[in-house]
Model the fold of this input.
Amino acid sequence: MNRLHALALVTTLSLLASAAAFAAVPASISVSGTLNGGINVSASCFVSSSGQASGAGRLFRTYNGVTYSYPFNINMVTTGTNTVILTGYTVANLAPVTLTATVPSGSQSFKYVVNGKTVTLTGQGTVTIQ
Done:
């Protein structure tokens, strides 16, 4: 193989790797679960090809036939090994929130700030990435 063929092969492989990496960017992420105290969490967001995230979620619980709901917005998504982390803020008072979930299913934690103190709810749930 001469140098020109080797260069063409390297360039082709590089372009294929770039295309595969671009295709791996998730278009949507959905998280649902049940946390301690019977509180449910549901969230979904979209991630653009540039990495910008936007979405919404809510904590909710039905008690005596009444559903209490606490909405939050999502503006950042990070990933780790078998983990997705959705970060944002509550709609009511713009307090920071973090939802960490195991992919595709397993442990979840939801952290939010109330009066300067961090509250953590833990539980189990599922994550769907498409």
The longest strand covers residues 66-80. The domain at 26-129 is CATH 2.40.128 (Lipocalin). DSSP finds one helix and eight strands in the chain.
